[in-house]
From TrEMBL:
Domain DeoR-like transcriptional repressor C-terminal sensor as annotated: residue spans: 2-115
Taxonomic path: Bacteria, Bacillati, Bacillota, Bacilli, Bacillales
PANTHER family on file: HTH-TYPE TRANSCRIPTIONAL REGULATOR SRLR-RELATED, HTH-TYPE TRANSCRIPTIONAL REPRESSOR GLCR
Superkingdom field: Bacteria
UniProt-recorded name of the protein: DeoR-like transcriptional repressor C-terminal sensor domain-containing protein
Organism of derivation: Paenibacillus aceti
Pfam families hit by this protein: DeoRC (PF00455)
């Protein structure tokens, strides 16, 4: 499996979980707080890929959309959305009803994986967008 990421933590995790995984680490400026690489070169590099499945996260989710703490995160996510067959959003219960400075709509999201049922207002909005919600079983990690 080929994994493309701009997160050093994700690169380490994927490369040590199963032999045979290949990890392509997108290059940019290193953020020591988040262990993520940023910069305009990330978006340019993402244009060279086409993903069967893309897995993205968010800092928060409400009925109004997805939230991110950095504007560059939205630019990266939009590049991923444009270059993917299916986009899966991974959010655990700690992200529900959390907001931050930058918001993105639910457009382009196909599946949402979470560990608890979502509040009715969020679920109704996801239904409007045709986003399937998959609940992880107890003991499974997101």
């Amino acid at each position: 499996m080929l994994v493309v990421t701009h997160s050093i933590d994700n690169a380490i995790s994927v490369s040590t979980q199963q032999q045979g995984n290949k990890v392509y680490l997108l290059g940019g400026y290193f953020n020591p707080d988040s262990h993520v690489l940023h910069g305009s070169s990330i978006g340019e590099q993402l244009q060279q890929f086409y993903f069967d499945f893309a897995f993205i996260g968010a800092s928060g989710i409400t009925a109004d959309g997805l939230f991110y703490s950095e504007l560059e995160d939205i630019q990266v996510k939009k590049s991923i959305l444009q270059n993917s067959k299916k986009v899966c959003l991974m959010v655990d219960a700690s992200k529900v009803n959390q907001t931050s400075s930058f918001k993105m709509s639910f457009d382009g999201i196909d599946l949402l994986f979470t560990n608890r049922r979502l509040p009715a207002a969020i679920q109704e909005k996801l239904d409007l967008y045709g986003i399937e919600v998959i609940l992880a079983s107890e003991g499974e990690n997101l």
